[in-house]
Amino acid sequence: MPLITRRALLASAGAGFLVSASGGAYAGLIEPALMLGVTEYALTPPGWPADLPLTIAVVSDVHVCEPYVPMARVKRIVETVNALKPDLIVHLGDHEATHRFVSGRVPPQEWAAAYADLAAPLGFYTILGNHDWWHNHMSIRSALDGARLRVMENDVELIEHRGRRFWLAGLGDQLAHWLGRGGFRGEDDLAGTLARVKTDDPVLLLAHEPDIFVTVPARVSLTLCGHTHGGQVHIPGLTNPFIPSAYRDRFRYGHIVEEGRHLIVSGGIGMSGLPVRFGVPPEVLLVKLGNEPAIA
Ligand SMILES: [Fe+2]
Questions:
Q1: For the residues of the chain, what is the DSSP string, one character each?
Q2: CA 294 / ligand 1 centre spacing (Å)
Q3: pLDDT tens column, 121-171
Q4: What distance in angstroms lies between residue 282's CA and the mean position of ligand 1's atoms?
Q5: What is the distance in A from the centroid of ligand 1 to the CA of 207?
Q6: How far is the CA of 171 from the centre of ligand 1 (A)?
Q7: What is the pLDDT of residues 212-231, one digit of tens each?
Q8: CA of 278 to the centre of ligand 1 (A)
Q9: Could you tell me the distance, in angstroms and rounded to a whole number, from the CA of residue 42 to the centre of ligand 1?
Q10: I need a surface site. Which of 111, 168, 198, 293 has the fewest CB within 10 A?
């Protein structure tokens, strides 16, 4: 008699639920369209001063489109982020959806104008993702510029916070140009970006795809990425072959520490490929670095 492990049982139960009518409705409507959670991470990675508290709200992979991520959803994201009262807000790219199930486009000026309501004392910074490059990057860039939202591309900024300073770096997209047959040429220049860091202050890096993490030096305290959508469909115990990373599960989701280097991968909010989500509810991240100094 074959042995069935608990892991295999869970995987097959999850897969069975997903193909059922109620599972399909959940994955196609409830989880992607109605849910929006806040996932918190609290850490003091190497190089970050323990007594310098910084809160970062992280939005990623919104993939705005009708009918799945319409303007009402964008406004809910803005309200959710503002309620967190973060010091800094970042968006990790893939602003619009490009899948074939889009029933209508939302003009970039509309969603960019909604992001102009995001409130944080240190501002709002964004990078572009692969879908932005493949579809509409000039209009997206122009809409973000028009709303005075800072687009970073192989660029850095030295930010002052509580009398201290840190560098925020934003990497160009690693899959910007599709060359066919699974080949891509990126716009990313990690060495050139980090060469612009001119002081010893700590560095935070924004990069759309997490695969860059294998080459990110320890000089960077924390790398924030999106792109994978946490696999978009995640059933514990079952390997998802569609995770868009050469490293599959390794950088699928969450807080990953390798050789003392820290990476956080957001599951994002919207969808690519198919308009379904299962087991990876849409999320905004609240990343808390450092601690409030003790009062003597
Ligand atoms: Fe995405």
A1: -----HHHHHHHHHHHHHHSHHHHHIIIIIIIII--EEEEEEE--TTS-TT--EEEEEE----BBBTTB-HHHHHHHHHHHHHT--SEEEE-S--B--STT--BPPPHHHHHHHHTT---TT-EEE---HHHHHHTHHHHHHHHHHTTPEE-SSEEEEEEETTEEEEEEEPPPTT-EEEETTEEE----HHHHHTT--SSS-EEEE-SSGGGGGG--TTEEEEEE-SSGGGSB--TTS--TT-SSTTGGGGSSEEEEETTEEEEE---SS-SSSS--BSS--EEEEEEES-PPPP-
A2: 40
A3: 999 999 999 999 998 899 999 999 999 899 999 999 999 999 999 999 999
A4: 12
A5: 12
A6: 16
A7: 999 999 999 999 999 999 99
A8: 15
A9: 24
A10: 198
How close is the Cα of 9 to the center of ligand 1, in Å? 30
State in Å: Cα 225 to ligand 1 middle. Answer: 10
CA of residue 2 to ligand 1 center, whole Å = 40
Q: Ligand 1 centroid to 3 CA: how many Å? A: 38
pLDDT value at position 10?
Answer: 44
Q: 242 C-alpha vs ligand 1 centroid, how far in Å?
A: 13
